[in-house]
Specification:
Layout (H helix, E strand, L loop, with lengths): L8 H12 L7 H6 L2 H32 L7 H8 L2 H38 L7 H15 L9 H27 L14 H19 L4 H4 L29 H28 L12 E2 L2 E2 L3 H34 L9 H24 L3 H18 L1 H10 L6 H34 L7
Antiparallel strand pairs: 1-2
C-alpha cells in the first residue's frame, strides 16, 4: 500500500482559504442593499462568528474520531458514523454534491463575467455575448480539472490566497475612490420595495451571506488518502489525497485562524466600502458598478488587474469544489489496483471530469443569474452543511449535558439556521422564477 506525500497545516490553510474566500464576496454590497447598514453589518458579523465556531466544532469532532482510530475522510463519512447510512446516502451526500456542483456552476459564470469585462475594456464596441465568454471559461476549466488530486492543488491554492487579497484590495480602494470622487452619485441607503418584497430580499441576502462564508469540504480538506486500497466506506478513489498528515490535532485550528484572518480583512472591507460607495444601487457583483455604460470609473489597468485576479482565483475555487464530483465518478469507473496514471484510469478520469465541466458550463451559460444562484446554493447547501450539521455532530459525539450552555447553544443555532435556511430557500427559488420570467435563456446580462 503506497502513500502519497502528506500535507501540513499551512497546506490546510491554503485549501481552507481558497474554498471559503472567492469572488462571491463581490456580491456582499448587493446583499447589504436588502438589509441596510445596521442589519447588514450585524448579519455579516454574526455569520462570521457562527461560521468560525461551527468549523472549529467540525474540526474537534474530526480530531476526536481520528484519535479513536476512526478517521473520517468526507462529510458523508461523518454522517454515516454519527447519523446512520441512510442520512448519509439520501440527505448529506446529495446536499454536498449539489452544493459543490452549484458552486462550480457559479464559478464558471463569474469567470465568464470577468472575461466579458476585460473584453469590453479593450473593445468597448465589442459584440460578443456573455454565454460566449462562459464557454471560454469552461474551456480553461477543462484543462485545469485534469489535475489528479486535492493535494496537487496546494501550490495553486497558495497563489489563490494572494490573488483574493489583491483583487479585494483593488475593489476596496476602487469603491472608496469612486465614492469620494466629484462625479459620485447621491448615496441612498434606504431599503426599497413593498413590505413583502423587502422580506424576501432580506432572506435572499442572508442566503448570499451564508454562501460567502460557506465551506462544504472541511472534512475532505482534513483527510488523508489511504493508499491504493478501498477505505471502510467503500471508496477507492484517488481524488482525496493527503491534505493534513496525522496526527491532525490542532492543525485545522491553525489553518482556520489563517483563513479567518483573510476573511475578516476582505469581507468587511469589500462589503462596507462597496455599499458605502453605491448604496442601494450596488449590483449583483460590485465590479459592474465600476463602469457606467461603456465608461470606466477607474483607470483601465486597475479594472484589468482586478478582473484577471478574479478570473484566476475563481478557477482555483472551482477546482476545489469539483473534487467531490470527481471522486464519486472515479470511484465507479477507475481501478484502484492500477497506478492512477495508467491508461485504464486516465481515460475515465479525462472523460468524466470533462463531462462534468461541460455540463456546468452549459448551465452557467443558460442561467446567468449570478447573485440568485449564490443564494440558492447557500440556502440548500451551505446552511445545512456549515451552520446546522456541525452542531449536531458535536452534540452526538461528545454528548454534553442537557443543562449545559454548549448543548442549548448548539440546539438554538440548529433551530435558528434551519428556519433561516428554509425561508431562504423559498426566497431564492422565488427570485430565480422571477428571473426566468424576466430574462431569456443565454441572456447577455
Amino acid at each position: 500500500m503506497s502513500m502519497d506525500k502528506a500535507g501540513t497545516w499551512w497546506h490546510c490553510a491554503y485549501h481552507l482559504t481558497t474554498s471559503t474566500v472567492s469572488p462571491v464576496i463581490l456580491s456582499l454590497p448587493f446583499a447589504l442593499c436588502s438589509l441596510g447598514w445596521v442589519a447588514g453589518v450585524f448579519f455579516l458579523a454574526v455569520t462570521a462568528v457562527v461560521a468560525f465556531y461551527s468549523y472549529n466544532l467540525l474540526s474537534v469532532v474530526l480530531e476526536h474520531h481520528d484519535l479513536m482510530g476512526q478517521r473520517q475522510l468526507r462529510f458523508r463519512d461523518m454522517a454515516t458514523d454519527l447519523l446512520g447510512p441512510r442520512w448519509s446516502r439520501y440527505l448529506v451526500g446529495p446536499i454536498q454534491s449539489g452544493l459543490c456542483y452549484g458552486t462550480v456552476i457559479s464559478g464558471v459564470h463569474i469567470a465568464g463575467q470577468s472575461l466579458k469585462f476585460i473584453y469590453l475594456l479593450l473593445r468597448p464596441d465589442g459584440t460578443m455575448q456573455l454565454y460566449q465568454f462562459v464557454i471560454i471559461a469552461g474551456v480553461l476549466m477543462l484543462v485545469l480539472v485534469q489535475m489528479p488530486s486535492f493535494h496537487s492543488l496546494r501550490h495553486l491554492n497558495l497563489v489563490s490566497l494572494f490573488l483574493c487579497l489583491s483583487y479585494c484590495a483593488f475593489v476596496t480602494a476602487g469603491s472608496i475612490y469612486i465614492g469620494r470622487s466629484k462625479t459620485a452619485t447621491v448615496k441612498d441607503y434606504s431599503v426599497n420595495g413593498s413590505r413583502e418584497h423587502r422580506v424576501f430580499d432580506a432572506l435572499n441576502a442572508f442566503s448570499i451571506i451564508a454562501t460567502t462564508y460557506g465551506n462544504g469540504v472541511i472534512p475532505e480538506i482534513q483527510c488523508r488518502r489511504r493508499g491504493e486500497l478501498p477505505d471502510k466506506y467503500g471508496s477507492s478513489s484517488s481524488s482525496w489525497q493527503a491534505t493534513i498528515a496525522p496526527p491532525v490535532k490542532g492543525k485545522m485550528f491553525k489553518g482556520l485562524c489563517v483563513c479567518y484572518a483573510v476573511v475578516l480583512s476582505t469581507y468587511f472591507s469589500v462589503a462596507i466600502s462597496g455599499y458605502w460607495a453605491f448604496g442601494n444601487q450596488a449590483s449583483g457583483t460590485v465590479l459592474a458598478n465600476f463602469m457606467v455604460g461603456e465608461k470606466p470609473l477607474l483607470p483601465t489597468w486597475v479594472l484589468l488587474m482586478t478582473n484577471i485576479f478574479s478570473l484566476l482565483q475563481v478557477s482555483a475555487v472551482s477546482l476545489v469544489y469539483l473534487q467531490p464530483t470527481n471522486e464519486v465518478l472515479e470511484q465507479k469507473f477507475t481501478d484502484p489496483e492500477i497506478h492512477k496514471f495508467s491508461v485504464r484510469n486516465v481515460v475515465p478520469r479525462l472523460v468524466f471530469r470533462s463531462l462534468s465541466v461541460v455540463i456546468a458550463t452549459l448551465l452557467a451559460a443558460m442561467f446567468p443569474f449570478f447573485e440568485d444562484i449564490n443564494a440558492l446554493v447557500g440556502a440548500f447547501g451551505y446552511v445545512p452543511l456549515d451552520f446546522i450539521l456541525p452542531m449536531i455532530f458535536y452534540n452526538i459525539t461528545f454528548k454534553p449535558s442537557k443543562r449545559s450552555l454548549v448543548f442549548w447553544g448548539n440546539t438554538l443555532l440548529v433551530l435558528l439556521f434551519s428556519a433561516l435556511g428554509f425561508l431562504g430557500a423559498i426566497s431564492s427559488l422565488r427570485q430565480i422564477i422571477l428571473d426566468i420570467n424576466t430574462y431569456q435563456l443565454f441572456a447577455n446580462i
